[in-house]
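Worked example 2:
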Amino acid sequence: MLSRLSLAVTETLRDRAQPIITSYALFRLIWDIYEHPDRYPVKVIRRVSAPGGTQYARVIQELGYERVLRPDADFGDFPSMDVRARVFRVVEVPDAPAEDVACLADPFAFIGYLSAMQRYGLTVRQPVVLTLATPEPKLWARRRDAMMREDYGFDPKEADLSYFKPLQAIDIPTSLRGRDTRVRHTKRTYHSQVLAEGVARLITVGDLFVQMLDDPELCGGMAHVLETWEEHAENYLDLIITAVEEAPTNIIRVRAGYILAERLGLRDPRIDAWKRFAQRGGSRKLDPSSPYEPVFSEDWMISLNV
């Protein structure tokens, strides 16, 4: 028989209708039930002011016994319910595709690169591998700390708590829900948006064009990137210019300026202003993943190594 706390968790998981929940999200839910009991359908009798390891372990045990939750097999081999599991499958909720599950497991992950190009209709290629991006460890840690402060209204790491389940980085498996996946850890902060039909996040289209210049090898290669810009860049010109101006490195502005102005003949004062970032005597390349070639754009002072 489920306790009142476990019943409140169960009803909430059913209402949310998400196929997985992480250990952090589960503890955060238990905490919120303690903090705001009136928000939940089952009244919880609180014997302590805040939940701890005992309450968390009891919920895990009860929901496992009642087959509400089980460890998600794609994220680790736990033969039975175990408090060490980081991702739990919500048994009564229908499963979701790999991109939804990945973005639930990692709150900062999003669809990018060739997978995002296919989503936006920028390529006719049908990538077999789902390519995702997530911040590199130091950036991920900063975003984690900000998220925990926002979730709790204080910094849990600095609070005097006897037990707390922190937000932890969860590796996305190379095979998720039967789909091959690849994760790129990026030092750049890209913007993303939640897809209307699910919980997966997709890089914004302007930032996707920047991503093509930064990691063309994950976007079908630089030749395919140039074809994509030639076919679609004019339709998204203002979004591209805005994203390029927000890019943290000048080489992105030089590559974008060469393609937009010299190859496509598009004119905009903001593009012309990027010429000040061109540098003589350097080894800048249009394709960062290919060898340097002694063929240059005179205006943009960049090796045309494609």
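The first helix runs from residue 4 to 16. The CA atoms of residues 119 and 202 lie 9 Å apart.
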